[in-house]
């Protein structure tokens, strides 16, 4: 069963990791957490700094990450569709239309 760490503990560990004095693996070992947990906390902190997600609120944070992932997939799909439409317009504008 995964351990529950306080948000303050997570922020402290991430702050130490961001200083870059040691590798993430060493920092995780020193604080007694897994490397994957530290990586997850680092990604969450990065998203918070960019303003892409709000502060962690427990179970809701996982839902935020899933929603963000789905939104990014949708954005990529819409960008691809827009590119197809741009190319179609460019192709059709070059065609000689009968009068």
UniProtKB/TrEMBL annotation:
One of its GO terms (molecular function) is transposase activity. It comes from Rhodoglobus vestalii. It comes from the Bacteria. This is Transposase. GO terms for biological process: DNA transposition. SUPFAM superfamilies: Homeodomain-like (SSF46689).
């Amino acid at each position: 069963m995964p351990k529950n760490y306080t948000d303050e503990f997570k922020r402290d560990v991430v702050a130490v990791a961001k200083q870059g004095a040691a590798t993430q693996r060493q920092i995780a070992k020193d604080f007694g957490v897994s490397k994957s947990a530290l990586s997850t906390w680092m990604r969450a902190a990065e998203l918070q700094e960019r303003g892409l997600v709000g502060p962690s609120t427990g179970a809701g944070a996982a839902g935020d990450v899933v929603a963000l992932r789905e939104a990014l997939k949708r954005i990529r799909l819409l960008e691809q569709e827009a590119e197809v439409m741009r190319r179609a317009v460019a192709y059709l504008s070059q065609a000689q239309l009968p009068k």
